[in-house]
Amino acid sequence: MAQVVATKLLHSSFFGNASIDNQIEKIKLCGIGENNYQSPEVLRKGSSSVGMWSKPIVKRKTKIVCTIGPSTDTKEMIWKLAEAGMNVARLNMSHGDHASHQKVIDLVKEYNAQSKDNVIAIMLDTKASFGPEVRSGDLPQPVTLASGQEFTFTIKRGVGTSDCVSVNYDDFVNDVEAGDMLLVDGGMMSLLVKSKTEDSVKCEVVDGGELKSRRHLNVRGKSATLPSITEKDWDDIKFGVDNQVDFYAVSFVKDAEVIHELKSYLKSCGADIQVIPKIESADSIPNLHSIITASDGAMVARGDLGAELPIEEVPLLQEEIIRTCRSMGKAVIVATNMLESMIVHPTPTRAEVSDIAIAVREGADAVMLSGETAHGKFPLKAVNVMHTVSLRTESSIMSGGTVSRLNQAFKNHVSEMFAYHATSMSNTLGTSIVVFTRTSSMAVLLSHYRPNGTIFAFTDDKRVQQKLAVYQGVCPIYMQFSDDAEETFENALVVLKNQGMIKEGEHVALLQSGRQPIWRFQSTHNIQSSLHKDHMTAPVSLNFTIQAKAYVLSNLVEPSFYRKTFNAIPFYRLTMGIAPVSLKNQSIRAA
Ligand SMILES: Nc1ncnc2c1ncn2[C@@H]1O[C@H](COP(=O)(O)OP(=O)(O)OP(=O)(O)O)[C@@H](O)[C@H]1O
Ligand SMILES: CC(=O)C(=O)O
Predict the structure, then answer these.
(1) 326 noted as active-site residue
(2) Is 338 in the pocket of ligand 2 (CB under 6 A)?
(3) Which of 60, 61, 135, 326 is catalytic?
(4) What ipTM does this complex have?
(5) 101 CB less than 6 Å from ligand 2?
(6) Are 434 and 496 in contact (CB under 8 A)?
(7) Which tens digits make up the pLDDT trace of 319-374?
(8) What transmembrane ranges does the database entry give (predicted)?
(9) Alpha-carbon span 421 to 443, nearest angstrom
């Protein structure tokens, strides 16, 4: 116990009252202010930082989603993006074809197969026609639209002239009225609807610009009539199932129905693919809660959201969507325009840097790059900026020993309680957490509580490893488990040490629990804190035996109170101990 108290003091003095010197040291470690391009190895693995007994590795917690396109669809670029910090590769089905996406999927799988300590998940964005994605048609060359000029959209196929272009949606003429404001490319250009005929909509250009092929069209304040899932969508979904992608990003979801439909299809074909609705439609906002409840997370798709709704609503909705996902323990991704200027410039605007920092502070699991990596000039620099800004921001929001009180409803299960207390313990001790999971559930729960240290999630299932790639703070690692828990713990520590993820003298909290027990008997859970070097002379062990009812009660009380109060009540067994580990003789001795 003396050890725990001592660490707590050290810990709070670092995170709570960091000296100017410490702050400057941290800033240097994060690379901000030095204006230097960091090596991919340092970028991905993280930097050493001041910690407790030793210096734990500080890894970036917020994940990075990169859209793959013409700038990045080669083996060389996929490798470089992965080493620079990409965690999820996104394929936008609105562009390219199955053959080009297949090539990227194969490259990502090739990367994963040869990588010892990194994994890239694949997200298929079923954008094409899942919802009312209205786009203008192909043009032989870009058309310049000047304010005041007349321009026509038609539902006739194959039209692409300087004053008229096709739209891909037959009900377009029915959905718009004279007086509506049409937004092109999320508002880059706007046109006022003047009149319509049976097959065409005549407009006057309000804000002009350069109209290119296949641009988004939105009507300000309106959602288009929702078509059901089309043939093209099913084709893309099947393509995703055949290729065992990890996530679907589903466009223009307006209610939970489409999610249920997709989930039941996936169940019928035995596909374990996470469904992430893109919140981008005005109609989705009243149904936010039910949509996210039915899904595995959500994406704040700010491009279309800011076109369908007044642009000033976007930051508020971003906050609300993140908060809703966080309260349910679901993954949330913030997308679009995050480093837009880096499509053509090598450095970001200060506003873009702040935008990333805000998403990180609000608690996003991941931030996304679109055109920046798909067709930009500086895709690697954009990932570099996202990495350093996220890491720096994260270092300023470490919570010390306390775990924020999250949605009460979330902490009503033993596993949730366990994740909560494991987080509290690792924060107090200033350690990383090593968790063993077959289903991902305990790693996801830990991520939900946002521990200060990295969550090293060991799994013996590659699908689970890939799925975990999007969750904040989780470093997923594939490893075969042995029948012997102690041997598996030991193997995991050796892997971490060999990969340079933990160091001699560093403490880690070992945790095994979750909905599918690995080595534990039903209803027993185990957290232990290990010293990663045989230099602790007097191991201290705290054993608590508590009642099932007590778990529910302890939701309401602070951990310290809970420790004192439930010490003597028998039933479940929760072990918190300090156990010395020696890497030299490869043995772990439980205290
Ligand atoms: N697979 C691809 N093949 C060719 N170009 C692509 C591909 N993916 C993306 N792009 C290009 O990168 C741009 C940005 O990608 P993004 O995924 O943001 O698509 P978008 O159509 O602009 O918008 P949204 O994200 O709403 O679908 C696209 O407009 C397109 O020009
Ligand atoms: C990502 C996306 O589709 C949007 O922002 O509209």
Answers:
(1) no
(2) no
(3) 135
(4) 0.96
(5) no
(6) yes
(7) 999 999 999 999 999 999 999 999 999 999 999 999 999 999 999 999 999 999 99
(8) none
(9) 14
